[in-house]
Amino acid sequence: MNKDSIEKLLRDKAGASVRLMQEGLNRYHVVTPFQFDDGDHLRVILSQKGNKWRFSDEGDTYLHLSYDISHQELGKGTRAKVIANVVATYGMQDNESELILETTEENIGDALFSFLQGLTRITDVSFLSREMVRSTFMEDFNRCISEIIPAERAKFGYSFPEKDPQKKYAIDCYVNGMAKPLLIYGINNTEKCHIAQINLLTFEKWGVSFRSVAIFEDQENINRRTLAKFSDVVEKQFSSLSETASRDRINKYLQEAISGK
Q1: Residue 85, number of CB atoms within 10 A of its CB
Q2: Which strand (E) or helix (H) includes residue 50?
């Protein structure tokens, strides 16, 4: 099957704007109107191996997602479940971040359409991180803490039983084993920042002895006035959980805190 024949089959199923650019023997760059948020087009490479045809993004989709979301975060929690579901639904393979769909010559047009739908659904994970930040951020927060602090010393969703039997002032993570327990809050929006401020002020009023730390999803998104008031009551803050450098500082701080340094 020559280039013109392949191009016709693809256009019949995926639209007249599809074009093929030959890059080698039985290897084509499939140009489509589908784009990422930054304006780059989805990368689709079509190649033939034996009697099979293969569509591949050559890892480009994950690469674009990693501009906003780390590879570690993409591989765990809600995001990973969404991607795995899309891969299975559209008959794709995830080969170490390279997305692949294999097909036969007679189904090549339908396969391209499915592949483009799958890639588009996967790129929506970037919107998931914005629209469902509460669930994904707290998953990342809990995982980060669990990787640093031994399970017997970390209590998630903890409330002081004597002072707060109705659990109105829950602490995201309570760390014991020191002269003063460490109260850790994950802050992903202005409302949560305000709640954490009220909690810490309440604990002070109760005469509870503690140290406190806040880890933000993105501190720049917090209302300035609320953040200023919160900064007066919290002992230590980290502006982001997603940045590698910030993760390293969080790790170092928590390691020193639980060792009593």
Answers
A1: 12
A2: none
253 backbone φψ class: left, alpha, beta (φ>0; ψ -120 to 50):
alpha
Encode pLDDT of 151-202 as tens digits.
999 999 999 999 998 888 999 999 999 999 999 999 988 889 999 999 999 9
Beta bridge partners of 56: 45, 100
In a 13 Å sphere around the CA of 126, the CA atoms on its Cβ side amount to 14
> Which of 1.10.150, 3.40.1350, 3.30.930, 1.10.760 would CATH assign to domain 133-258?
3.40.1350
Query: What is the sign, positive or negative, of the torsion defined by CA atoms of 136, 139, 142, 143?
Result: negative
3-131 belongs to CATH 3.30.1460: yes
pTM here is 0.53
Closest CA to 42 of 82, 103, 101: 101
157 alpha-carbon distance from chain centroid: 22
CA-atom Rg of the chain in angstroms: 25
Contact 44, 32 (CB under 8 A): yes
Q: What is the phi/psi pair of residue 80, to 5°?
A: -65, -40
Opening angle at CA 138, ends 137 and 139, nearest 5 = 90
DSSP string, 124-139: THHHHHHHTHHHHHHH
